[in-house]
């Protein structure tokens, strides 16, 4: 008789209180059908699973591990595949299942049939390993849990007290019987048609929560079996308060849970306010005097959505009404790096990855600051990281390898950049050209090492080479160096009668993507976006300024798995630690901003800027 339907009707008393959502660790993984792993036991063990399940049959006096009788094979016994290697690891770890004493382990024996023979055979097989499984003096002893063809609860007392049982939510247990229950489990499919995608319906979610709550009210952990094996399923089970996560992929579950700190971000404070533009000159057909190009290195749509959610649904860049898509492939690859991507925007030509300011044949290109200088337009190049790194360097250097930092620094002498702000003092002050900094100073530049010196100066020719610590990640205390650099550049250049061009890079969004670190990505993007807010504000005040916000490429292949705008919470995953070929957005605000709508190659950003800022001059 299937008593589940009756039981479902009775769990309503547990629906009023939601199950306590918890943050699970890899040790809460239950390796289901473990014997089907390429390396039974050890694969799940080294993934840190806290529960490992083996299906067994009794045959010829031995316990064989298999799901069906026809899968039984010589040598694949419970002793050889599980008991011996488990005992070896237990001994190696000083009478603990894991070296980390906070981790526990239970071995779940799923009896496929014939418990009358299986249980005595199991007790016999465990005798050589008393110290591992049935040592009451050792709190770290491995727990043996029987599942499948189990004895009736009234018969639990007939078996040694080191044997526990996998309970069922619809069974009624006495207080003594409940002491022998290690966990409560059931088939997810008996309660819902939810297939692991999205979320269960509200009625189904209530049923599932009721099951978990009922188990917790008895002081027992809960597990669903027959669940989909996917991050979305794991997330939803965790939210419901499930204690064990059923999986046939223990290593994948381990990686997801162990890396959780780098994949989840919860905003610790309130949302920062965004600037609300006036739109008075947005899209207007009028002269452009200044252009501010803001490049979020590695910033794709997923990164923007993550930052939007984390800031409770608000971003400055999303105030822009005109939006396009930039196609980012390099000359020699559909996946661009920052060197080729930035060169395309700085010079209007595609080039090879790693090339800076040179075409695909190695010929130096004319960069945007060089051309604009002929019109008396001044240029500021800013990065919140290494100023010789690929994106800023593409606007003032030309080398065939982006790693040639000393050559990149030396190239600055031949550039038409008026203000340069970023870190990497070493490449300038310890350059192979020992007189490099003196030569820069002789060209009329105010050379300094701190933001305070920049703020105190009124020169419109600045080289600010910050200590590397001043461009550490935002999450490590950098502060608003990027925003302040933009504001100071505006202060120094806004008075130029012919206008200015500025490129400011949010460099470390990319670093976070390479590190597969979502908190790093989001905090850097928030810093970048607050800089965007200042640019939009200036554009409104000035009336002749075009602001463009884009990226050179997307980094990390970020996907968003769970989010809460109300909580400022985002949970994601990365598919790579490198760049992807996904097109990136282009946001534009100010006069002629509609010119940036549509889809186009990244080289068009250069051509559009050059056309608009030089029109009528």
TrEMBL record:
SUPFAM superfamilies: Alkaline phosphatase-like, PLC-like phosphodiesterases
Gene3D superfamilies: Alkaline Phosphatase, subunit A, Phosphatidylinositol (PI) phosphodiesterase
InterPro entries per the UniProt record, alphabetical: AIM6_PI-PLC-like_dom, Alkaline_phosphatase, Alkaline_phosphatase_core_sf, PLC-like_Pdiesterase_TIM-brl
Signal peptide residues on this chain, from the entry's feature table: 1-20
Alphabetized UniProt keyword annotations: Phosphoprotein, Signal
Pfam families noted in UniProt: Alk_phosphatase
PANTHER family in UniProt: ALKALINE PHOSPHATASE
Family: Belongs to the alkaline phosphatase family.
Protein name, UniProt field: Alkaline phosphatase
